[in-house]
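re the bet — no i am not wrong, look at it urself. input seq straight from the record:
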Amino acid sequence: MNSTISAILGIAFLIFFHELGHWLVARGLGLKTVVFSIGFGSKATSISLGKFWDTEFRLGLFPFGGFVVIPELQDEEGGRIVLEEHGIDGDAYVKQPVWKRALVIAAGPLANIFLAYGLYVILLIEHRHLLAAQAIVAAFFTTAGATNSVISGLLMMLHLTAVDPSLPAGATDVHGIVGIFQVVHQAAGSSFVIFGQILAYLSLNLAVINLLPLPLFDGGQLLFLAVEKLIGRPVSLELRGYLSLLALVGLILLTGLGLLNDFTKPISL
């Protein structure tokens, strides 16, 4: 398969699997899932793939992520509005306990960890020729080691620890979607083993970054739920909105820096 197509499909699969985690757990716990989208964009800027299992599946115009619309993760007023926007009676909104909402939110990053683990199992069987039982055990330690590597890399990127001189040039700089695509493209044109290793590593990156306690990430939503459980009421919409705006500004600045580094400090495998 063409390495460009392989890279695009590989990145899309990581995003899909993350959102699939949210969707499956939400469905399993009885929450409503009105939209499942790979890529960002409104209904007008997305391609509808049809409605299945009470969920409209879409491909968004901007392929930088994805989302699942789950009204019952929002406050009551917002949830009712979302339901009515999708032709569902707002009275169908059901306030969910904190533990259910936390499981749904945590399911995305956990799905990426499980995906990385599964990829390592396959690689150990196909490349190292381990027996399935051996690979299942060995992949646990491989996943743990790779996760530790991801966390170490993040700390280096934030200049909280010294940079490992053995890493490729530019590896600990902030990078954007272009840089990520360049790495995956190189891996796809190299070998199945390297391609699989890069996808597993990126899947763990996606999990770790999403668990950061920032409002726009799953970790931030989990933090809000922890505070809600502690004080007995949800964090105010005003405070959440203010913190989310600050996080968005920071993310935009980081994205700009990442794109600059993508072109001035490319990573080479």
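see?? The longest strand covers residues 62-69. told u. also The two ends are 20 Å apart (CA to CA). so pay up
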